[in-house]
Design goal:
Length: 286
């Protein structure tokens, strides 16, 4: 069995190269699609019937903030554009898709995110919470999955493959950018560009470290008294080389960061069961 890191590397290569897995290697059955409406990025993921990455595409966007669609028309247009690109690449239509939300957001906000998928002419098959989607890729059955996104940090605790509880806090990559902008006297956009440049990793991380420590303290409080040894961190805001070490120091837990952490949740969204119904994380119809 291939490791989750190998699968993520494959998926990242397909996105970077604007390529597809050769059709001769697709498992028999319909393709599955995931739509991740993130605070900083929209990612459309495609996997085959055995959850092998087939292709994907991403788009920098600010149409969603902290799990809330703030530009509905822009979100629909972005997803339609990505869908058209992927359909042209594959030579076939994308029919069904899943999407994800941060844990604990209002049902109305979850419905709006689902509506974006449907407005992009795909049948909505599932709305899952983001850390749970990530756990599918990581093949985690026990531990905590922490999804550090642009606007929020989501936490899910898993035991024997079941989600025992989820929590979300409005702290993420956006807060890092704000701290950086204040420290360097930059505009928000300039600070965001500076943060995303991997060449600046060693200089940027000490400045945003207080935000990381706050995230870790939030996770620690949520995990207090719970039987959790390992924390798996995913999401674009945890890509700093010192992130997992800082998190481990603050939480006292073993912290594992997979390859390509930005792509874990988007890929996991597409890994729904073929018979998935249109239900959300809490089981309610969206």
């Amino acid at each position: 069995m291939r490791s989750s890191d190998d699968i993520l590397h494959d998926f990242a290569d397909l996105i970077r190269e604007e390529a597809i897995l050769p059709k001769s290697e697709w498992a028999e059955g319909p393709l599955k699609v995931g739509v991740d409406l993130g605070t900083a990025n929209i990612v459309l993921s495609v996997v085959d019937a055995q959850n092998r990455p087939v292709t994907g595409a991403s788009y920098r966007s600010t149409v969603v903030r902290d799990g809330i669609v703030v530009d509905y028309v822009g979100a629909v247009q972005a997803v339609r554009s990505l869908k058209a690109i992927i359909e042209d690449r594959l030579g076939q239509q994308l029919v069904r898709a899943a999407t994800a939300i941060p844990p604990g957001i209002h049902a109305g906000n979850a419905k709006a995110i689902g509506n974006v998928v449907e407005a992009a002419d795909m049948e909505l098959v599932e709305i899952v919470d983001e850390p749970t989607a990530a756990s599918r890729v990581l093949m985690v059955s026990d531990g905590a999955v922490v999804d550090v996104g642009g606007g929020t940090t989501g936490i899910s605790i898993l035991k024997n493959g079941r989600v025992l509880g989820s929590f979300d806090e409005a702290t993420g990559g956006t807060h890092m950018t704000l701290v950086l902008a204040g420290a360097y006297g930059m505009s928000f956009d300039e600070a965001e560009e500076h943060k995303l440049d991997v060449a600046n990793d060693r200089d940027v991380f000490p400045v945003v470290r207080p935000v990381v420590d706050k995230m870790a303290s939030i996770v620690s409080r949520f995990l207090d008294g719970k039987d959790v040894d390992d924390i798996y961190v995913v999401g674009g805001a945890c890509t700093f080389s010192g992130f997992e070490k800082a998190f481990a120091q603050q939480t006292g837990k073993t912290v594992i960061k997979p390859a390509e952490p930005l792509l874990v949740t988007p890929l996991g969204i597409a890994m729904y069961e073929q018979n998935a119904s249109q239900t959300g994380p809490a089981g309610g119809v969206q």
